[in-house]
Amino acid sequence: MVVSGRADAQTDTATIETVRGPLSGSTRFIGLGGAFVAIADDSEGVAINPASTALRVPYSWSMWDYGFGVDFAVGAWLPKNDLYNESNSSDASGKSSALFGSLAAVLYYGHGGVGVAAEAQSNAASRQDQVQGVSRDFGANFGMVHASVAYGFLDGQLLLGAGPRLVGMSFGNNGSGSSSLSSAGVGYEAGVIVKPKVMQYRIAAAFKSPITAKLPSAMGEPRTRAHVPWDFALGFAYQFGPRPLNPPLVTPEAFARASVTGGKPTKADIERADQVLFARYERLQRWYLLVSAELSVAEADGSHAGIEEYWTDGASDARPIISPRIGLESEVIPHHLRLRAGSYYEPARIGLSPSRVHATGGFDVRLFEWDVFGLIKRFDYWQLSIAADGARSYLNTSFSIGFWH
Question: With CB atoms 3.0 to 4.6 Å apart as the test, which of 59, 245, 371, 391 could cross-link to 405 if both were Cys?
């Protein structure tokens, strides 16, 4: 997130706005250039589209099932990493960095599900004002928790989800060991995914409401608040190749009932059905090419008036922040390697800085087999995922450990 300040003379209120800049999120999300709202599967989709918690992936057919994921990103590799896109400033020079981590989990029952995702980001920046000959340091910490409940109507073809999102943030001088301002707030988010059975496309949309939280202020200073803008995303995904994108959910119980003539299926019948479904999944063709496109729109009001303590100076555009995105994914070596590539547009947001076009990429590689002392069955191959996001004066890398399906 980019942090900027604006002041309202009529209400004697200053606002710190947490505006999106470069992408932050899961490793797969970054590798696909942020074009993820229509894919949004497994635990990686919880923070992107609330409807994802009802989306059953092809390798999930048990009535009860779960997923979880952990991701970590580092955006501080370049000597002058320009997180805030201020390289066009003529009177200042500096560098900025960011650390990002997330933890997500989802629990499914039939066509319904609940999910929770917790994200944390720490930004640090230092700048040398060449005109005044002074240095400024800034630190900002953000925490976001997404919680959602979703259900798949029409036998899982229309997914609807909603839930709250909670944000906590603190601002201060970088390296000071303390925060000068801190606050928390709550909003909501809602999403929809349309995924017709046996078809190879998905259409989706998600909306996240704005969040405004009051910040403590000292005696005689203007009241201060922090603002997280609203966000809307519209996406489309299409998968080429023989591998199905939207297979219907068939549980072992349903398969056993259809296979048994008369009477209720026994536990042994259900176990045999589960084995048949697993063998059917194993026989699926592996090759596919997934193409995803997204248009992301975020709030902007153009009333910025630089607040020196909060790093950014200059006016911003009053038009909404529009970011088109595209991503590709394919399993190029069956059972061993998946590749991703993507791109997205980062509009100019602060001062006179130019816009940036980002190039992203990443891969999943299958590692070793380990069932964690019997806790993990069948899908017991571990995988390493890596992604990178590069643009002018910017490089971010993301890492995660998960399971190869």
Answer: 59
**From its phi and psi, is residue 217 left (phi > 0), alpha (psi between -120 and 50) or beta?**
beta
Q: What is the number of alpha carbons within 13 Å of residue 19 lying toward its C-beta?
A: 34
**SS3 for 252?**
helix
pLDDT above 60 for 50: yes
Cα-based distances in Å from 202 to 115, 174, 198, 249, 294:
21, 43, 11, 16, 12
Rounded to the nearest 5°, which phi and psi values hold at 206? -145, 140
Q: pLDDT tens-digit profile of 311-336?
A: 444 445 556 788 999 999 999 999 99
- Looking at the whole model, is its pTM more than 0.90? no
Which amino acid, 28?
Answer: R
Contact in structure between 119 and 1 (CB atoms under 8 Å): no
Residue 399 backbone dihedrals phi, psi, to 5 degrees: -135, 145
Please state the φ and ψ torsions of residue 21, each to the nearest 5 degrees.
-120, -115
The amino acid present at 116, given as its one-letter code, is V
Q: What element of type H or E holds 330?
A: strand 321-333
All structural domains of the chain: 2-222+232-244+284-404 (2.40.160.60)
